[in-house]
Structure formats: structure tokens, C-alpha cells
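step=encode ok
step=design start
structure_in=
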């Protein structure tokens, strides 16, 4: 009677041991990485809460606003007009104190900030203090969700066009180093020091005020077109100027940066060796220039995707574009801490998740990178 005995060769044992070691290293690295990113997010959110509250100054402003509002309400109420002044003053102070207690403004700032931090980390964003959505809701989630589509439309259109157009133009320029167009881009690259809203003002003056071919701002015509195609074309017309201002503000500098980046890699020794072997220029570009630069390109694209959620505060305000940037601008002016913290926590979580996933993407696109082995090429 035979016995089934599994015989494992030394090579198989070594492979199995190597796989277990790699898996353990990846899990250990992932845990440490997640913990460090979480700590970073906590610190960033807490600092945002303290800055938005201006170290307790906003609480004092809210107390003053409550006192003024309740005093005026009682003073204007006919039911209290003939009341004894001392009794009226006592009633006023009781209502003021009741409202302060309801909002928790008497608690120490450190304790209140910890409550804000816990709610923010669990995405319990609460209610806005001074703002509301178009439907009248004061729920911070409702305010943010209402504005996200507009920001994604504007920032997505502008940044995706900017990223891919400048990347391919820079690659083309790197093949023609020293040409007229190469020098042209270098000459115009300082124009990217001008902020997008500055270009926006000029575009409004030219195309809206003088030529009158595009709208001054907003997101759709009034009255709103009834058919879908009409609404889409209307939104597209309103999108042209703000998107163009965002593209123009970074266009030439982005081309210059990518072009310089590609030139650095194209001057490496292994590229010169490939040229000496007579390999076609397209193969050299794809295998020896684009492949080593792929991790950097992926990083730039990933950070671009995160930036879509941030909005453009001043540019959206100039064009009256109802996105998250404009909401953040209003929240800062109104000292609306929950809204400021709400927009920040979304951006912080997206940034942390992207940074965490990028390490694994690097390992997939670049075989020199090994997860958990110091983060550098091996």
C-alpha cells in the first residue's frame, strides 16, 4: 500500500519562503504607512480647526453676535415692550446664556476642538453656522455635495486638458532642442507666474465686455434652456473662460518643466548606447525615456486628480462659478468653521489615500522599486 508523500525540493522551499517574507514585508510596510498617514491627517485637520477658529476668537465673535441678536429680538417684541427693565434684562441674559450653552461655547476650546476633530475624522460634518445650500439645508454634507459637480466639471476640464496637452507638447519639444518653438516656450514660461484669476479678468474684458461672444460668469443662461442639448451647450459656453484662465496660467511653465524633465532622461548613458546601436528613435523614446519617467508622470496625474476636489477659490469667485472654491471663500469670510473643516477633511483623506496607493503603483510600473525595502530602487 503506497503512501502519498509530498516531496518539496529546496528550490520550491526557497520560493515559498521568499513569498512569505515578501508578503510579511508588504503587510508590515502597509500598516506603518497607514498609521503615519493617519497621524498626518489628524494633525492637519486639528491645525485647520484651530486656524479656522482663530484660536478662540471666532467663539467670542459668536457670543457677541448672539448677545446682539437676542437683545434686539426682545427689544422689538411687542409682548416685552411694557415689561419691567430689570425683568427684561434678566430674561435677555437667560436666553443669551441658554443659546451659548446650546452651542457649547462655554466649554474650553481644547475640549470643543477635540469634538470637532472626532466628528471630522468620522465624516460627521454637522451643520453650518452661517451658510446653507440652495435648497435651504444647513447640513455641511449637503452644501459640499451640491457644489462638487461644478468643481469637478471646471477643474477636471481645465486640468486634464492642461496635463495631456503639455505632456505631449513637451515630449515633442524635447526632440527638437534649441528650435524656434523650444525657445518660444522658454521665453513665455515666466507668464505662468500670473495667477489664473488675473487672466480671467482679461478674458472677461476681451470676450465678454468687448466682443460680447461669451458670458461674464455663472454656470448657465437665464432662463435655463428646456432641452438637454441646450443646457449642455449653455454650460459649455460658460465653462470656456474660467477653464481657459486656469489653463493659460500654467500652460507654458508646465511645458517647460516636462520638456526639461524629458531632456534630462534623454541624455543618460543608456540612451546614448541605444542610439549607438541604431535603435529607432520611437523605440528609444518609449523604452528608455518614457518608461523611467512613468512613476513621476503617474504621481503628477494622481495629484492632479486630487486637486480637482480643491477648486480654485479666487477664480471661481471672479467667474461666479458655484463650486467648492467659492464655498470655501464664503465660509472663510463668514467664519463658518464646520464648512471649512468639511472641505479640508475630504481633501486630506483623498491625499492620504493617493499617497498610500502610489507606492504600490510604483512597484507595478518600475521593477526596481520594492515595497517595504526603504522606498528606493533595489
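sequence_out=
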Amino acid at each position: 500500500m503506497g503512501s502519498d508523500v509530498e516531496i518539496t525540493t529546496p528550490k520550491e522551499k526557497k520560493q515559498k519562503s521568499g513569498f512569505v517574507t515578501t508578503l510579511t514585508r508588504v503587510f508590515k510596510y502597509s500598516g506603518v504607512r497607514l498609521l503615519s498617514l493617519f497621524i498626518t491627517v489628524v494633525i492637519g485637520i486639528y491645525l485647520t480647526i484651530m486656524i479656522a477658529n482663530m484660536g478662540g476668537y471666532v467663539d467670542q465673535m459668536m457670543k457677541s453676535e448672539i448677545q446682539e441678536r437676542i437683545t434686539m429680538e426682545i427689544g422689538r417684541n411687542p409682548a416685552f415692550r411694557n415689561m419691567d427693565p430689570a425683568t427684561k434684562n434678566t430674561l435677555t441674559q437667560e436666553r443669551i446664556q441658554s443659546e451659548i450653552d446650546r452651542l457649547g461655547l462655554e466649554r474650553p476650546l481644547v475640549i470643543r476642538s477635540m469634538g470637532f476633530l472626532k466628528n471630522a475624522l468620522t465624516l460627521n460634518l454637522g451643520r453650518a453656522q452661517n451658510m446653507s445650500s440652495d435648497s435651504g439645508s444647513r447640513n455641511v454634507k449637503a452644501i459640499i455635495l451640491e457644489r462638487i459637480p461644478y468643481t469637478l466639471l471646471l477643474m477636471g476640464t481645465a486640468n486634464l486638458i492642461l496635463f495631456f496637452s503639455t505632456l505631449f507638447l513637451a515630449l515633442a519639444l524635447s526632440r527638437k532642442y534649441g528650435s524656434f518653438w523650444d525657445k518660444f516656450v522658454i521665453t513665455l514660461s515666466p507668464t505662468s507666474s500670473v495667477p489664473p484669476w488675473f487672466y480671467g479678468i482679461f478674458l472677461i474684458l476681451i470676450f465678454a465686455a468687448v466682443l460680447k461672444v461669451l458670458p461674464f460668469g455663472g454656470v448657465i443662461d437665464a432662463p435655463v434652456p428646456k432641452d438637454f442639448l441646450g443646457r449642455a451647450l449653455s454650460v459649455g459656453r460658460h465653462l470656456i473662460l474660467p477653464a481657459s484662465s486656469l489653463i493659460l496660467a500654467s500652460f507654458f511653465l508646465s511645458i517647460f518643466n516636462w520638456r526639461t524633465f524629458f531632456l534630462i532622461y534623454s541624455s543618460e548613458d543608456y540612451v546614448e548606447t541605444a542610439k549607438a546601436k541604431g535603435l529607432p528613435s520611437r523605440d528609444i523614446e518609449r523604452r528608455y525615456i518614457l518608461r523611467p519617467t512613468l512613476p513621476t508622470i503617474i504621481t503628477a496625474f494622481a495629484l492632479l486628480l486630487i486637486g480637482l476636489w480643491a477648486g480654485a477659490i479666487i477664480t471661481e469667485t471672479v467667474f461666479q462659478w458655484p463650486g467648492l472654491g467659492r464655498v470655501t471663500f464664503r465660509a472663510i469670510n463668514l467664519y463658518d468653521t464646520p464648512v471649512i473643516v468639511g472641505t479640508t477633511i475630504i481633501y486630506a483623506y483623498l491625499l492620504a489615500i493617493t499617497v498610500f496607493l502610489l507606492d504600490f503603483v510604483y512597484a507595478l510600473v518600475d521593477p526596481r522599486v520594492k515595497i517595504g525595502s526603504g522606498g528606493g530602487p533595489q
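step=design ok
step=annotate ok -> The chain has 14 helices and no strands.
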